[in-house]
């Protein structure tokens, strides 16, 4: 699950991915990537130059389901699969540039002994221009961009509330 969050201390929008409780450090792709990059003395700047995004921060939270690994990332844009539908076909240079970046990123991973394992357009996110959304206030994001959320009561199959879950879930209207 990925949450849109605002990091007030630095005034930036972030994505926080909360992993399944069954994930251990060894099962998490981002942590494995980070560990291999560290072992090869590759920093975040070099990875980014090669179109690979490393987490800004990771932390664990405990729940009734177990421990969840949380990964903090810069906010990214649409999936490549969605972006392809929006591009203008009369701009082949743009498509060529994206393909070049994809090949460069994959080459960088392979050069460092990393196999992606699920490289497909649905799993590739477009990078936004640095700070592209950071001027949007929390109020504007909530009220004007995301709109009024749809509240749904969270109940067990028996129709009762669980003491371990939130009262409501929210989705975009």
From TrEMBL:
It is an enzyme of class 2 (transferase). Pfam families: Pkinase (PF00069). It catalyses: L-seryl-[protein] + ATP = O-phospho-L-seryl-[protein] + ADP + H(+); L-threonyl-[protein] + ATP = O-phospho-L-threonyl-[protein] + ADP + H(+). The keyword Plastid does not apply. Signal peptide: none annotated. InterPro entries: Kinase-like_dom_sf, Prot_kinase_dom, SRPK, Tyr_kinase_AS. Keywords: ATP-binding, Kinase, Nucleotide-binding, Serine/threonine-protein kinase, Transferase. Gene3D superfamilies: Phosphorylase Kinase, domain 1 (3.30.200.20), Transferase(Phosphotransferase) domain 1 (1.10.510.10). Residues 1-173 form the Protein kinase domain. The keyword ATP-binding applies. Its EC number is 2.7.11.1. Component of the EKC/KEOPS complex that is required for the formation of a threonylcarbamoyl group on adenosine at position 37 (t(6)A37) in tRNAs that read codons beginning with adenine. The complex is probably involved in the transfer of the threonylcarbamoyl moiety of threonylcarbamoyl-AMP (TC-AMP) to the N6 group of A37. BUD32 has ATPase activity in the context of the EKC/KEOPS complex and likely plays a supporting role to the catalytic subunit KAE1. The EKC/KEOPS complex also promotes both telomere uncapping and telomere elongation. Component of the EKC/KEOPS complex composed of at least BUD32, CGI121, GON7, KAE1 and PCC1; the whole complex dimerizes. This is EKC/KEOPS complex subunit BUD32.
